[in-house]
Design goal:
Blueprint: H1 3-7, E1 11-12, E2 19-20, H2 22-68, H3 77-101, H4 106-113, H5 115-124, H6 128-143, H7 154-180, H8 185-206, H9 208-211, H10 214-239, H11 244-250, H12 254-266, H13 272-295
Antiparallel strand pairs: 1-2
Helix pairs in contact: 2-3, 2-8, 2-10, 2-12, 3-7, 3-8, 4-7, 4-12, 5-6, 5-7, 5-11, 6-13, 7-10
GO cellular component, one term: plasma membrane
Keywords: Cell membrane, Membrane, Transmembrane, Transmembrane helix
Main location: membrane
Amino acid sequence: MDGIGRGWAWCDLGVGSLRVPPTGLVLGGVVSVQFGGALAATLIQRVGAPGTVGLRLAMALPVLLLIARPSLWRRSRRDLGAVVAFGIVLGLMNLCFYLSLERLPLGVAVTIEFIGPLGLAAAMSRRRKDLVAVLAAAVGVVLVNGHELGQVDWLGVGFAAAAGALWAGYILLSAETGRRFAQLDGLALAMVVAAAITVPIGLATAGAAELLHPRILLAGLAIALLSSVLPYSLETLALRNMRPAVFGILMSVEPAVGAIAGFVVLHQRLGAIQLLGMVCVVGASIAITRTRQSEAPDI
């Protein structure tokens, strides 16, 4: 079976006879992570971006370790290197994205962040139609920042763009880790590395007393489940049966979902030009996804 065929195979979730196509796993993760991001934006106002990221990963870590129960027994240096690299990228990606949420609306930050998987899709695609769609999505990324130059928060844009570059690395390293480790073992081990990076920074900036407040802990647990445990687990499972380029294109629906989450949870309204930009991004995603699905062989 070739790469496209594997991209549309069904995934066994290990829960009875429940089997879900990888596209369903990815889209489920998108909805979860965007509403988790909207909830995180409310917490950032109190404990800051580093504190929110550190709390989120610290609370997600024991859940993943309990579920996966990973082992380092008989692991090669390459296996460990892949996990460490994955964890570093994972931690920095989240930190940069949350720093962008301090300065930008959720939908705008997510759209800028998509530069990462957009660039990955462009680099890996060999089809002219795919490249045209990627260019259309690039236009959408520009339109979503349709403000006067003096009103653009360039620091926020920079953090979102850095998160996007790290997101591209996350896609590749997640796939590599998924091939080397069974189930969610690699993800759980990578989360240890990510937490080791972000938790000390969060404690230093927000303070232990603030982060250990019962309401903060409860919010952190909800964010951990929505933004880490559920989406990362679904994405890791999906990437075992999906080409990274296809995954990157599917994830382009995130700006639209982020805009919806920002409106519902944070009451953030975007202008017509920004919404037009999101339509370009999502339209490109649908065009490429439908093309690949129609060409996928029966399995």
